[in-house]
Amino acid sequence: MSDDEVKPLNWSPAPNVGYTVTRRPDGGMYFRFSSITKETLQHWREFSLAHLEESDRLTRNLYDLREIEDLSEEAITYALEVNNDPSVRNIRLAVVVANEQVAHAVREIAALTTGGVELAVFHDLATAETWLDRPLTFTV
């Protein structure tokens, strides 16, 4: 993707929001979570659903959850809602975690996600990046 093709991110930090997001070099997004509060989940949900509406290409996203010790039922519910939104199209999603408890919750989310998302769990960024860099082979 050339510099003139990079979509704007349209994200800005907000008070009491425990995540950041930046554009990846391949055009996908890099989410880094430091907390999973109700405010964080609501902000992330609104941002993610708005971004999905404008999705026009195969996308590689990286979620860094290494600072998160546990995913609440509310977080799982929000993730399932976003992953199963009808506008989800051809997303490869790598999730990096620090413990097996969060890995298990993310695998539950993956198992309950219906189409449009290829999701895998990792314990380090380098392995996640290697997996994300594989050629995208989805059929649109």
What CATH architecture would you give? 2-Layer Sandwich
Overall residue-averaged pLDDT value: 88
The major pleated sheet works out as: 5 strands, mixed
How do the SSEs run, as a string of H and E? Answer: EEHEHEHEH
Proportion of β residues?
A: 15-25%
Distinct helical segment count: 4
Say which CATH homologous superfamily is assigned. STAS domain
How does this structure look, described?
There is one protein chain. Helices cover 34% and strands 20% of the residues. It has helices at 38-53, 73-83, 100-111, 125-132; strands at 19-23, 29-33, 59-64, 91-96, 117-122. The protein is α/β, with parallel strands linked by helices and 140 residues long. Strand 3, helix 2 (73-83) and strand 4 (91-96) form a beta-alpha-beta unit. It has a 5-stranded mixed β-sheet, with helices on both faces. It has a single domain, classed as 2-Layer Sandwich (Transcription Regulator spoIIAA), CATH 3.30.750.24.
Helix-strand blueprint:
Blueprint: E1 19-23, E2 29-33, H1 38-53, E3 59-64, H2 73-83, E4 91-96, H3 100-111, E5 117-122, H4 125-132
Parallel strand pairs: 2-3, 3-4, 4-5
Antiparallel strand pairs: 1-2
Summarize this structure as a short list of keywords or feature phrases.
five-stranded mixed beta sheet, 20% strand, Transcription Regulator spoIIAA, 140 residues, alpha/beta, 5 strands, 4 helices
